[in-house]
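Colleagues,

For the teaching module next term, I've prepared a clean inverse folding example: a structure given as tokens, and then the sequence designed for it. I'd like students to try predicting residues themselves before seeing the answer, so please don't circulate the second half yet.
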């Protein structure tokens, strides 16, 4: 598999303040990386280094070259925090200017259609709402048909419909084999698209892997069902953490969901309305960061 990004033992500081510590990272073609962490964890700093906006040594390579090289820039699109400041330029004028810088840019009419921007094309950038501005910023990020796309909090300010359109386009880009690094506070959206998750806390990676691997490491399954039995009878099941009952509805939390469910169905075949839910990325992330803070 073709390697797009290589980072080996990266450290970065602002003055005496360490921001990134011993970062090691390999990203291959076609991967969608969900980079998550609290504010100040170092996510934006890492993206800026990979883009060549902050200095790095020879331990960071993008497309086999140093970040910010001409070779890398031609293959990259980026949507960073902080929107465009060219307030006296119209939407289509701005995107036309961006497209002129590349030989393989996507047709302007196509990108305007895909992002539902046609009716806004003649507006000045300063007239746009925050959500519309983010859509224009995304348009300029993908207009050059890049192989690698950096998206830093891309859906901030977008309404539900705009976010839906955005993630549909991300899915299309995935199908085209694009490589993406996405940061977002909407963790329920990240878990739907990321092929690999990276959790960054206080400048260090505390997890790299798939959502399933993360869920397996922080195993906790919620089983909900209807039963007339007293809740105490279910305490003998494997892996039980907590049991709650409200009227006839029972909610069990377990660290061994598969075996708990097997035992439940074997011993109490008359239970009904069974639903099984694994921990979400958001709940696991909160648990991980809370645990690290307390250590």
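(Answer key — instructors only)
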């Amino acid at each position: 598999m073709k390697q797009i990004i290589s980072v080996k033992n990266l450290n970065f500081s602002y003055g005496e303040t360490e921001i990134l510590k011993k970062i090691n990272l390999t990203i291959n073609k076609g991967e969608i990386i969900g980079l998550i962490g609290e504010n100040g964890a170092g996510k934006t700093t890492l993206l800026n280094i990979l883009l060549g906006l902050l200095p790095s040594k020879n331990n960071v390579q993008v497309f086999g070259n140093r970040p910010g090289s001409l070779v890398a820039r031609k293959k990259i699109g980026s949507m960073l925090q902080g929107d465009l400041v060219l307030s006296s330029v119209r939407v289509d004028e701005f995107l036309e200017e961006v497209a002129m810088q590349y030989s393989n840019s996507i047709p302007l009419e196509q990108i305007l259609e895909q992002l539902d921007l046609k009716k806004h094309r003649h507006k000045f950038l300063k007239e746009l709402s925050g959500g519309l501005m983010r859509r224009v910023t995304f348009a300029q990020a993908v207009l050059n048909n890049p192989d690698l796309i950096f998206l830093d909090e891309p859906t901030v300010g977008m309404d539900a419909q705009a976010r839906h359109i955005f993630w549909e386009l991300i899915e299309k880009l995935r199908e085209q084999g694009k490589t993406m690094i996405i940061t977002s506070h909407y963790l329920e959206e990240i878990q739907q698209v990321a092929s690999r998750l990276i959790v960054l806390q206080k400048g260090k990676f505390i997890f790299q892997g798939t959502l399933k691997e993360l869920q397996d490491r922080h195993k906790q399954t919620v089983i909900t069902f209807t039963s007339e039995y007293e809740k105490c009878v279910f305490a003998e099941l494997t892996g039980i953490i907590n049991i709650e009952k409200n009227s006839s509805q029972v909610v069990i939390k377990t660290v061994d969901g598969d075996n708990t469910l097997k035992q439940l169905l074997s011993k109490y075949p008359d239970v009904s309305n069974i639903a099984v839910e694994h921990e979400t990325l958001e709940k696991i992330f909160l648990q991980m960061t809370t645990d690290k803070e307390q250590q």
